[in-house]
Design goal:
Elements (H helix, E strand, L loop, with lengths): L14 H10 L4 H10 L6 H8 L7 H11 L3 H5 L4
Amino acid sequence: MRIRKQALGNRNIVGAKIEAKRKELGIKQKALLTQLQIKGVDLNASGLSKLEGQLRYVTDFELKVIAEVLGVSVNWLLGIDE
């Protein structure tokens, strides 16, 4: 597993939760990307890495599909429901 070289950014509040849940489920980034692309989210490896590192904004459509794929609610990703 690679260690993040850059500090976390401030462009979203969901990236760290997405990364943590993905790792908890044992899903590699490539597998998550495949599932997202099947559901219509056009995201590449760099984009996902930046999203998880909070260096990239996330759209509402992406957020909805990511929550669906990870089996969590959008509210959980946003920190509304713990």
